[in-house]
Structures are given as structure tokens and as C-alpha cells.
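Help wanted!
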Amino acid sequence: MLYDAGKILAGLAIFLVLVTAPIWWNVATGADAQAPELVMPQDQGGCVLPSGEMRASHMELLNDWRDLVVRDGDRIMITWDGREKRRSLTASCLGCHSDREKFCDRCHDYVGVTPYCWDCHITPIGGAS
Amino acid sequence: MSIDRRFFFKLAGLTALAAEVPGAGATPENSGKKGAGEAPKTTRWGIAIDLPLCHEHPDCRVCMEACNKGHNVPSIPDSRHEVKWIWKEKFSHAFPGQTGRYLSSELAEKPVMMLCNHCDAPACVGVCPTQATWKREDGVVMMDWHRCIGCRYCIAACPYGSRSFNWVDPRGYLKEQNADFPTRSTGVVEKCNLCEERLAENKPPLCVETCPYGAIHYGDLSKPDSPLRKLLDERFAIRRKPGLGTEPQVYYLV
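Answered by r_m:
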């Protein structure tokens, strides 16, 4: 037999409600877990890697590009479908994904990361600042 | 298996013989032969500045402005925070020891264009704790701003004042931004990169290209027949503080 069963069960119920409150809150306000809508470039002939790979590992790719360009002066890469591209965040990435706010930032805001690329690299005119 | 004394000496003798046979291993003679006769494949970039020609136009700022614009170098009024890639300095400051009581005081006051000397033995590189700055094979003393932790050892080490620290966010001091080149952020050291981004495209550095009087020359110091080497053969040139042993590669034609 549980002593003070009423109080304990009531306490547990309150605890559960509080812990799961963020979920209920999202359900109630309709802001449930939806992937952010990204504006994709049109007619640019595809990304340097298949989009699945880009989604998963664009940060490693950008780090590799950074080291290859800055340290080895190796500026040109061949895309997975055989095109030549400059290893450049502003010229190549933002050349196609021209609206940074609707592509990079939307996803980064959603997952709560703040990359420091933009502390130095300038968003070309046409993109968001 | 155990080795007796006699067998050990036999083995040692054979090993010594094998080392003497030509082609058996990389002996110093072999590696020496390989390089002889061939022209060095690498380039060694250098700069020569024609001082008398530059002095004919004391108010000219074209090279500085082109460089600042091309590399997003901020113009910060507070001299404690200023950032410099190529700038003017009095001759007496650029060449301390080259002025004297009976030497022309007119020359001592004249401006000299100063920039990173892209030394052969750069003091800044040795002291950098993160290898954020290093000397490339083509002589450019490069910086990886991603890697700079802002310790400013290099600023202390450089005898030419070629390095600047970003005490404040440089973006607030840029009239216009060149999106093809990054800015720097607070807490990072920067300096002239000899326009390595242009050298990669076979273009001359901005100061060389934009000088309206052709007073700044660049070229390959490793090739004896390069125009720059010919120029240095023909005209007397001085370097800043050569006695410090950093082997600066910016030459001033006098």
C-alpha cells in the first residue's frame, strides 16, 4: 500500500505535465516540428556534391575548402558530376544560393547554430546581410 | 636464433658495402645531382619600389587606396587602432641609420611606401604559436586568419611594423565592402598578403598594377633573367634593416 498515494500521484502528474509542456505548447500554438523551408536555386546545374551529402557534411567540406585554398593555394575543385568550380564560399556557394537568409540562416536558426563564417566573409549584394 | 661475434662482423661489413654501391640508397651525391642544371621550378616573388620616381608625386595615394579597397582594409581615425597593409612613412623612420647630420635632411623627410617585406627568414613566422602565419614556397608570408588567435607575438617580432591588430570591428570603418575578399574580425592580426589571390590568377599585385607612374615593380627573384632581377642588377637598391637577418624581399631603388 502506498502512503499518501493521492499526493504522490498528483505530484507525478504535475511533474509530467511540466516536463512535457514544451511539446504541448508547440502543439497548441501550431508551431510543431516542421523542417524550415529553404529557397533553392533554380537552373544552376546542381550542387558540388549530391544534396544529401551536402546537407550532412557541408561544414566539413567548407573546412576542407578553407584549408586547401588558404594553405595549399588549391582553388579549383571538380564537382561530383564533373564540372569545375572555384572553392569559394562567397563566389561559389553564394553564387547559386544567392539569398543567404532564406537558405543558410533559416536552417542554422532552426537547429540553433551560429557559424562564424559571416564575421569575415561578406554576403554579396543581393543576399541578406 | 643467436648471432655470434663472427657473423655479426660479416653482416656489418656487407651492410657497409651495400651502402657504398651507387644507386643502392639515397646518398647525398645522388640527391645533389638531381637538382643540378635544372632551373628552380618555384617562383620567389619580390617587390622593388622606385623611390625617386615615387618622390616626384608626394601626394599620390593611388596604390594605398587600391589596396585598401581590394582587401577591405579599414581606415580607422584613431591611430592606436589603425590597420595598415601599404602605407607611407618618413624616410628617416623607414631607414633609421641611413640619415645623419650632414646627409640630406630633405630626403629624410620624404615619404617611403612601406608594406610587408615578405622576408626570407621572417621573424613573425617563427613566433606564431598556431602556425597561422607561414612562408609559402613562392616567398609570400601568408596568414590564415581562421587560425589566428590574436596573441600578437608576430606584431612584437616584426621589425618593420608590417602587422596590425584588429582592436575594433573593422566593418564599421569600411566605406564600401569588396565581397570578393573577406574582412577580418576583432582579435585577428592582418598584413599585406602580396595579393596572393591575384598572383594565383597571374595578375600583378594591386599596388603594382595601379601605380600610375610604374614606380612599383614585382617579379620572380629566383630567375636571374627576370625583369625584376635585371632591374636590381642595373640600379642600386637598399632594403629596410638588412642587419637584422630577416632577409626582406622588398627592394628600394635609390
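OP: Thanks! One thing I noticed: DSSP finds six helices and two strands in chain A.
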